[in-house]
Amino acid sequence: MASNKVALGISLALGAAVSWGAMGIAAQYLLHYCRFEAIDLVSIRLVSAGILLLLIYRILGGTDVMSPFSSRWAFTQVAIAGVTILGSQLTFMLSIKAADAALATILFTVIPLMCAGYYCAVDKKFPSPAICLCFVLASAGVALVVTDGDFSKLNFSVVGLLWGLCSSALCALYSIQPQKVIKKLGVCPVVGWAMIIGGMVACCFNPPWTLQVDWNLNSIAAFTFIVTIGTVLSFWCYLSSVKYLSAVLVSLIGCMEPVTAYILSIMFYGKSVGLYELLGILFVFANVMIISVQSEEKKN
């Protein structure tokens, strides 16, 4: 039974990473060809995804859709999660604007270290040598994938670095903070309302009726994919996986996201594969394999 839970946790974390990576390709299309701005995607996507998730949950028989409003504690926890999700995405976009996507993506590999730091402080335990190796493999792998081994390509900026670290800290926070309320209320009510709250806050600064974007069949299809797969499925998988694995392991597996985006960019945009990029992909895959083996051995 324990090994089944480990396998389920790893599968959910991989599902989240792959869904986020695939969403990046669809978002790239909207941003480059359909006059979308980053804040447009952040605001309307979160509200749309939250409503859709709660509708699906209710149709499938969920009877506690309004459970986050059952107590002040529950609502506060869900609201904090929603604002944290919104903040992580906005600061990530600000990091890209101040520096570039490569630096912002590399800084995401700091998330497992932040989660590990939290657990070290709480549990007074240091990560195992295998997990430390995974930190190195994940960070090196993502860095090689996004730079092709040429770090001079990075547009280094102190402001971009600070925004990127802030985004990573917020991601680490929403990996840990909502775990108690999720265990009490379930993933769907918590994630759905967190998305709606975060999206509504964003809409206060970026009203949907003021958007000047190009809606056509392709943009509608891309946006639908972003909402359903890149947001609903990915966040549900991510926050479900922390029921079976620690936030450290989940965020390490999450390093598959840029690898997924890179592989899909090869398929859809004809991007070529370099030696360093291939090596980076192997590093990230090795990271996931080590986590799988170590988790299995620990449970056994």
UniProtKB/TrEMBL annotation:
Residues 8-146, 160-292 form the EamA domain. It is found in: Membrane. The chain crosses the membrane at residues 42-61, 73-96, 102-121, 128-146, 158-176, 188-208, 220-239, 246-269, 275-293. One of its GO terms (cellular component) is membrane. It comes from the Bacteria. Keywords: Membrane, Transmembrane, Transmembrane helix. It is a multi-pass membrane protein. It holds the Pfam family EamA. Belongs to the EamA transporter family. This is EamA family transporter.
